[in-house]
Amino acid sequence: MYPWPQRPPGLVETGFKELAARWLPILNEFDKYGVDLCYEIHPGEDLHDGITYKHPRACILYDPSHFVLQCLDYLEYIDIYHERIRMFHVKDAEFNPTGRQGVYGGYQGWVDRAGRFRSLGDGQVDFKSIFSKLTAYDFKGWAVLEWECCLKHPEEGAKEGAPFIKEHIIRVTDKAFDDFAGTGKDEKFNRTVLGL
């Protein structure tokens, strides 16, 4: 939340020290056994962006809908933190600010907020780019439908969601598209081509 009136000096630091005192023993124990813990990066929670976590066992449940509502670049986030992303909530959202309301929503119900969750394909999330980036970074985690829509019935969202995800999963090629000759590596041939 935007701090107004100003928070007392040291309040945030004291809060994070307390979180560290509670979570570090758990994360350190997980580290002994090679277990990662995925945090859903979510507005208003302890871990809500890339600045709010550091522990190597604190990994990410990536949900682009939360980034839309926070006005964060969800594609660049993948570039920066792809090694930490272990799970992926496939959920859509939209953000349509007006001259009357923005990020904070003016205490409106979901239908009337500037930022709201939508069924897959009905919001503003660029899923083609997300699936492409995750594929390029060799993402091995789960892509899980998380449905929350302020308009559409949940049965419609579920019926549409699974095929939507299936259509976006990219089958990775086993060779370059222009490797039609398939000559393989041959140092002698390469030297001949170079005139050496």
Report the uncertain regions.
Answer: none
Predict the CATH topology of the domain at 36-172.
TIM Barrel
CATH level 1 name of the domain at 36-172? Alpha Beta
Overall pLDDT score? 89
How are helices and strands ordered from N to C? HEEHHEEEHEHH
Please summarize the sheet with the most strands. 4 strands, parallel
Q: Got a strand count? A: 6
The quaternary organization reads as single chain
How does this structure look, described?
The radius of gyration is 22 Å and the shape is extended. The model has no long low-confidence stretch (mean pLDDT 89). It has a domain at 36-172: TIM Barrel (Alpha-Beta Barrel). The longest helix is centred in the N-terminal third of the chain and has 22 residues, at 11-32. It has helices spanning 11-32, 64-70, 74-81, 127-136, 154-168, 187-193, and strands at residues 37-40, 58-62, 85-90, 92-95, 115-118, 142-145. By secondary structure, the protein is of the alpha/beta class. Strands 1-2-3-6 form a four-stranded parallel beta sheet. Strands 4-5 form a two-stranded antiparallel sheet. It starts with 10 loop residues before the first helix and ends with a helix.
